[in-house]
């Protein structure tokens, strides 16, 4: 349909707002964890630049993304074509057993090694003439351990700039996924990546290496999470930031120096329960990465140590390449008003973060003082609060729960969004027998938002939940408790109702009852509040039940606990 170009933005907004009837426009807007406003309608966005949109000279059909595989996945892939082989050996994998069996020279690799071992590693395997990313992330090691000898690492890496014969090989890896795994927002990840790269250029400039040469030796790794459009915009914003950084170093041919951009699907949003949902998550994450324009991609299997999981991850690469059409076009999201605005906002806010880091003395100094770690921790805690409040959904964990599952917790990353729920659910399953995993909500009011909140929380950690009718008086409450045989109760009401009925004094010795208030009157495991860390309080509550046979012994009949 041909657009009427005389229609102005306010006319579009006016039409859109008419559909809201009595609701305010702000009610359908949202915010990212970065406090960037997401609106339901976008007008003309930021003018897309060449470097925001793509650094590739041709579509993926001409220059396919490299399929990254860790060693245990690789045997399943060899029959599918050696030309795309890209062995992904991160720092937690010992490369030696796999490289000893490599027959073909000129193989392409992503091998991350500790900084102090890289020179000897490259010398040991020099005959393989390995291409790709064979490098270290000194600041990543410093981020993991404050005792890491950063300056010594730079000194150890310096000779490689002179003796490395593979001109295209990357020696420095900026692993922004490290920060994402700890809970960093999109703009914090971008700022971390640029700040680390800046530190590397500065560190080696002091050692006689030109900024241009150092920039040519840097590769980047990003984790791709579940916010589909935000993750596309993240990769696009990075390219703008990278060019801007190089221009700050007065590198004349900055537009021709592009690092290898590697992506991997995030483990932060993966779940131990309903693991097949992880396959669906990696599908959207992979599509985000490729629409953003990455050079290589590692898709984590939806279940580790599962041949089916490995095979599905590999087939996902093939489906995206052969069946979606994204391989046939450069930057399929380019020109979208929403994406261009989001890209520009991410780049602007990330650059602001970067400037703050630089004023603090650079990334190494910021990490030394713990400033950046605290900033990320604040966001991580904020995100957990939003999940607990129900503002962020984790399918299979906080919503749409399969209550019959009892898997082993095989996903190790404790910073995963679902981990607090899974840990508590595991504890409850181990502590309470099936007959004691039932809770009745005792309703002293009709406010559905509060009722839904507490029902959602208890369901997410392994309880089955039912609701009583509204109980208007203490007599109604006592009468209900005489006739009901639930092992535990959550007394849901407002503070004034507790004061009016003097409920704490009436039920203070009844371990079956937990009070749920709008405000917590004092520190106690018996009081829960929507605004507090309710999972920690629940964990404490479960601990108080351990060893209490009346609360934890399985009962064959409906007797009082």
Briefly summarize what is shown:
By secondary structure, the protein is an alpha/beta fold.
Percentage of residues assigned to helices: 40-55%
Q: Low-confidence runs (pLDDT<50, min 5 residues)?
A: 79-84, 557-561
Indicate the radius of gyration in whole angstroms.
Answer: 27 Å
Count the DSSP helices. Answer: 24
Inertia-based shape? globular
Class per helix and strand makeup: alpha/beta
Tally of strands: 15
Biggest β-sheet description: 8 strands, parallel, barrel
**Mean residue pLDDT:** 84
Description:
This protein has 24 helices and 15 strands. It has 561 residues and is of the alpha/beta class. Helix 13 (276-292) links the parallel strand 9 (261-265) and strand 10 (296-298). The radius of gyration is 27 Å and the shape is globular. Mean pLDDT is 84; it is low at 79-84 and 557-561.
Describe the SSE topology:
Elements: H1 9-18, E1 30-31, E2 37-38, H2 50-53, E3 66-69, H3 71-74, E4 85-89, H4 96-99, E5 108-112, H5 118-124, E6 131-136, H6 138-144, H7 150-157, H8 160-163, E7 170-175, H9 177-181, H10 186-205, H11 211-216, E8 218-224, H12 228-248, E9 261-265, H13 276-292, E10 296-298, H14 307-322, H15 337-359, H16 363-369, H17 371-389, H18 419-431, E11 438-443, H19 448-460, E12 464-470, H20 474-483, E13 488-492, H21 495-501, H22 503-507, E14 513-517, E15 527-529, H23 534-545, H24 549-552
Parallel strand pairs: 3-4, 3-10, 4-5, 5-6, 6-7, 7-8, 8-9, 9-10, 11-12, 11-13, 13-14, 14-15
Antiparallel strand pairs: 1-2
Helix pairs in contact: 10-12, 10-15, 12-13, 12-15, 13-14, 18-23
């Amino acid at each position: 349909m041909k657009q009427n170009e005389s229609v102005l933005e306010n006319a579009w907004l006016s039409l859109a707002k008419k559909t809201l009837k009595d609701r305010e426009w702000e009610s359908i807007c949202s915010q990212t964890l970065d406090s960037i406003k997401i609106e339901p309608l976008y007008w003309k966005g930021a003018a897309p630049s060449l470097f925001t949109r793509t650094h590739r000279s041709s579509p993926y059909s001409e220059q396919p993304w490299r399929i990254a595989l860790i060693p245990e996945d690789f045997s399943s892939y060899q029959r599918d074509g050696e030309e795309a082989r890209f062995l992904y050996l991160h720092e937690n994998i010992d490369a030696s057993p796999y490289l000893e069996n490599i027959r073909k020279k000129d193989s392409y690799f992503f091998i991350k090694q500790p900084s102090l071992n890289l020179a000897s590693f490259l010398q040991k395997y020099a005959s393989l003439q390995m291409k790709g990313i064979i490098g270290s992330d000194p600041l990543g090691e410093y981020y993991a351990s404050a005792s890491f000898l950063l300056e010594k690492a730079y000194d150890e890496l310096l000779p490689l700039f002179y003796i490395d014969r593979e001109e295209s090989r990357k020696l420095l890896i900026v692993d922004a996924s490290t920060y994402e795994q700890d809970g960093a927002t999109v703009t914090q990840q971008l700022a971390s990546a640029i700040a680390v790269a800046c530190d590397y250029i500065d560190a080696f400039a002091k050692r006689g290496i030109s900024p241009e040469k150092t920039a040519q030796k840097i590769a980047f790794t990003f984790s791709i999470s579940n916010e589909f459009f935000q993750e596309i915009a993240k990769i696009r914003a990075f390219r703008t930031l990278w060019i801007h950084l190089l221009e700050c170093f007065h590198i004349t041919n900055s537009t021709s120096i592009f690092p290898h951009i590697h992506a991997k699907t995030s483990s932060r949003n993966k779940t131990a329960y309903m693991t097949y949902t992880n396959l669906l998550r990696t599908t959207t994450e992979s599509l985000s990465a490729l629409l953003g324009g990455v050079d290589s991609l590692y898709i984590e299997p939806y279940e580790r140590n599962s041949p089916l999981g490995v095979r599905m991850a590999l087939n996902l690469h093939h489906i995206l390449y052969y069946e979606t059409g994204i391989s046939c076009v450069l930057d399929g999201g380019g020109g979208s008003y929403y994406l261009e605005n989001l890209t520009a906002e991410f780049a602007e806010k990330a650059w602001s973060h970067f400037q703050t880091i630089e004023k603090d003395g650079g990334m190494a100094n910021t990490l030394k003082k713990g400033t950046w770690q605290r900033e990320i921790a604040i966001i991580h805690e904020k995100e957990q609060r939003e999940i607990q409040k129900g503002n962020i959904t984790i399918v299979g964990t906080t919503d749409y729960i399969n209550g019959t599952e009892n898997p082993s917790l095989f996903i190790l990353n404790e910073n995963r969004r679902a981990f607090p729920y899974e840990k508590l659910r595991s504890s409850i399953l181990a502590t309470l027998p099936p007959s004691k995993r039932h809770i009745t909500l005792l309703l002293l009011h009709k406010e559905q938002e509060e009722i839904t909140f507490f029902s959602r929380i208890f369901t997410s950690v392994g309880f089955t939940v039912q609701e009583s009718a509204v109980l208007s008086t203490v007599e109604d409450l006592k009468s209900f408790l005489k006739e009901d045989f639930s092992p535990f109760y959550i007394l849901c009401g407002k503070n004034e109702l507790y004061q009016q009925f003097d409920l704490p004094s009436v039920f203070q010795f009844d371990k079956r009852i937990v009070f749920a208030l709008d405000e917590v009157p004092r520190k106690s495991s018996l009081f829960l509040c929507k605004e507090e860390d309710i999972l920690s309080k629940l964990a404490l509550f479960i601990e108080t039940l351990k060893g209490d046979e009346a609360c934890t012994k399985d009962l064959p009949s409906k007797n009082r606990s």
